[in-house]
Structures are given as structure tokens and as C-alpha cells.
Amino acid sequence: MQVNDIHPLRPDKEEFIHIQERLAKQIDVSRPLRLEDLRTVAGVDLAYAGEGDSETGFCHIAVFDTATMRVMERSGAVGEIDMPYSPGFLTFRELPLIVEAAGKLETVPDLFLFDGNGILHPRRMGIASHASFILGKPAVGVAKTYFRIAETEYKEPGWEKGSYTDITVGRETLGRAVRTSAGVKPVFVSPGNGIDLDSATDLVLSLTGPESRLSIPVREADISTRRMRREWEKEQK
């Protein structure tokens, strides 16, 4: 893995695409992986405050013991965001803070769950795919909203928990719309790297409780990043 994959020397779309296409050739989404195979799972999320040249990012990683589903370690990172948002290139905004937060962990999680996409991406390189190479562990994307790719739309799954519909581009299935709780909006699951789609779907369902449509690790990270942002905003007043 190259440092430029996190901090490109030439931060423009041409270089971003080059990095994504190079890494995409190395993705493996054929590996079955069960919850029983994992001792720890981490949820990762980011939140933002401000806009334009004064934007600040907040990253939180919550590591869970899969046997007890209790948080065993946390880490976070706060920093200025110097890259404007551009669809398809969100990873390059978020990776520096993710790497900083992950570097503070004493526990190396067996798998990372991201609030975002894996191969459900125009170049198969959403945040879960890209970060998997940097972190050296399997990763899964669990997005709250649908990132539309190649003019495709997803079909609503059934209303019961565990229902899903495949999201296919051409002949390739890139992800699924999954109903993690009965009667709630679906989440969008896609493998990032080091795990297959069926395993990713099963893991997300197994790690989702009745209190939210989000998997427990991602929900915890989501709550924590918003708490970090509120505390930071109070300090700025």
C-alpha cells in the first residue's frame, strides 16, 4: 500500500480515478466469512461541521466484542477537511481521519463496518473497499441512502426483516437493499473487500438490533460522531 493512496500527490479527479482503478483490480469479494469467525467488529463513521474552507471532520471507531456485543475500545480523530466533496471520491476526504483514529486502537478489529459503500460504486471503490486495503482487514459498507450507479434503481425488498433485493449493474451484483428491521427503510449493503456479498448481508442482519435499522457497531459510531461534533461546537462558542 502506498502513502499516495491516502494523500495523493496530485489531488485531482484524474489521480483519484487512477488510484481507484488500480486498487479495484485487487478486490476479493469471494470469501465466505461468518460472525462466528470474528472475535471483534468495528463500526466506523464520520460527521462534519462547517462548510467550504472551514469544514471540520469527526471520525469515531467503536470496537465490539462479538461474543458480548459490548464496546471494548473506542478511538476518534478530529481535523480540518481540506478536500471539497465530490460524488464518487468521498473516500479521499475521509481516509486521513479514519487512518488516524485506527492508529490509536490497541485492538486490531477482525472486520470493519463503514457507514458508506463498498463495491457499490462506479469504480467499485467505495470507502469500505478503499479503507480495507489501508487497514489490512475485511470491510463491509452499510449505507443509509442509495448511491445511484449507472442509471440503476433498486427495488424495494419485502417488509419483513431479512428481506432484500439485489442491486445489479450489467451482469454484476454490487450490493443489496436489505430490510434489517420490519417496516423500516432498507439499508444498502455491499462488500468492501475480503468478504462475499452473502456473508456481508448475513453479518449486517446478525449485528442489527431492534432499536435501529443500522447495525449496532455503525449506529454506535454514528451516535458518537454526532456527540463529538456537538462538544466541538460548544467549545467554539
Automatic annotation (TrEMBL):
InterPro entries: Endonuclease-V. One of its GO terms (molecular function) is RNA endonuclease activity producing 5'-phosphomonoesters, hydrolytic mechanism. Its cofactor is Mg(2+). Its EC number is 3.1.21.7. Mg(2+) binds at D45, D115. Keywords: Cytoplasm, DNA damage, DNA repair, Endonuclease, Hydrolase, Magnesium, Metal-binding, Nuclease. Transmembrane segments: none annotated. One of its GO terms (cellular component) is cytoplasm. GO terms for biological process: DNA repair. The record marks Y85 as: Interaction with target DNA. Its main location: cytoplasm. DNA repair enzyme involved in the repair of deaminated bases. Selectively cleaves double-stranded DNA at the second phosphodiester bond 3' to a deoxyinosine leaving behind the intact lesion on the nicked DNA. Belongs to the endonuclease V family. This is Endonuclease V.
